[in-house]
């Protein structure tokens, strides 16, 4: 077998789930400073701020449970699925019939890893507001949604209307060369192939229930106060640079 570098592994794994086409810079950033002790290509990156730093909008206990337990669980699940698929290929025979089930597990967990990796980075203390008028993300939001307010209403509605567990996603779609707001149910369903997520909002109950209970709309309003538009702009620049 030809040895593959860690970056190549991360880069190819980033395409799992199809519509989640995170750029290579993001994948490289994810591999830096990652916590040790994870056996496989996926690792749990540390939060870029303290658990309590997004209060009062998102509480410290939710952040700790969400990052340390839920995100870590997806990392373990994705690595386990990768290992199982390797084992199935080695074993052959009847084991090959398990490919469908394990690939499903891989899609769920790997998409969970990639979305959470971005989720922590698109938030910061004292964030929110509108992106700078001279930023490309600011210009493209106005071009593709009319006004920032129209975008924000669309993004909030997409997030709020997720059935069950999922995400609201602002993404760059390279074929039409424009921004789209899409939803993800669970982590991996209902996206558009090739879209590059730029701003993602976790609306699983584990992301807000301790503080907001059933008031998902209030949590979404609070999220708008912690958006890190500098990161979103960086993700857009990366997407534009790598678009074919
Ligand atoms: Mn989550």
How would you sum up this structure, described in words?
- The protein has 244 residues and is mainly α.
- The chain has helices at 6-13, 24-31, 60-91, 99-121, 136-145, 148-160, 209-212, 216-223, 229-242; strands at residues 166-173, 178-185, 196-202.
- The chain has two domains: 6-121, Helix Hairpins (Orthogonal Bundle), CATH 1.10.287.990; 136-243, Iron/manganese superoxide dismutase, C-terminal domain (minor pseudopilin epsh fold), CATH 3.55.40.20.
- The protein is 49% helix and 9% strand.
- Strands 2-1-3 form a three-stranded antiparallel sheet.
- β1 (166-173) and β2 (178-185) form a beta hairpin.
- α3 runs antiparallel to α4.
- The model is unreliable at 1-19 and 23-37 (pLDDT under 50).
- Manganese (III) ion (MN3) binds next to α3.
- Residues 66, 70, 116, 202, 204, 206-207 line the site of manganese (III) ion.
The gyration radius over C-alpha positions equals: 18 Å
Elements, N to C (H/E): HHHHHHEEEHHH
What is the number of beta strands?
3
> Fraction of residues in helices?
40-55%
Average pLDDT over all residues: 88
CATH class value of the largest domain:
Mainly Alpha
The CATH topology of the largest domain comes to Helix Hairpins
SS element count, helices: 9
Largest sheet: 3 strands, antiparallel
User: Which homologous superfamily in CATH is the superfamily of the largest domain?
Assistant: Fe,Mn superoxide dismutase (SOD) domain
Class inferred from helices and paired strands: mainly alpha
Low-pLDDT sequence parts: 1-19, 23-37
Basic shape: globular
Bound molecules: manganese (III) ion
């Amino acid at each position: 077998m030809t040895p593959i570098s860690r970056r190549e592994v991360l880069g190819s794994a980033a395409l799992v789930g199809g519509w989640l086409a995170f750029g290579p810079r993001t994948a490289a950033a994810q591999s830096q400073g990652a916590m040790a002790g994870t056996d496989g290509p996926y690792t749990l990156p540390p939060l870029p701020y303290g658990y309590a730093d997004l209060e009062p909008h998102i509480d410290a206990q939710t952040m700790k449970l969400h990052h340390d337990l839920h995100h870590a669980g997806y990392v373990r699940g994705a690595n386990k699925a990768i290992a199982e698929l390797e084992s199935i290929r080695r074993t052959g025979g009847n084991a090959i019939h398990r490919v469908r089930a394990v690939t499903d597990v891989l899609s769920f967990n790997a998409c969970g890893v990639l979305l959470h990796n971005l989720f922590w980075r698109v938030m910061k203390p004292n964030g929110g507001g509108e992106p700078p008028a001279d930023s490309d993300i600011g210009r493209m939001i106005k071009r593709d949604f009319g006004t920032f307010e129209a975008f924000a209403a669309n993004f909030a509605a997409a997030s709020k209307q997720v059935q069950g567990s999922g995400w609201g996603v602002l993404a760059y779609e390279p074929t039409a060369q424009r921004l789209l707001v899409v939803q993800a149910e669970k982590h991996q369903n209902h996206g558009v192939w090739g879209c590059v997520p730029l701003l993602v909002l976790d609306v699983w109950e584990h992301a807000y229930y301790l503080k907001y209970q059933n008031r998902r709309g209030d949590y979404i309003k609070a999220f708008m106060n912690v958006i890190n538009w500098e990161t979103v702009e960086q993700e857009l620049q990366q997407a534009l640079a790598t678009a074919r």
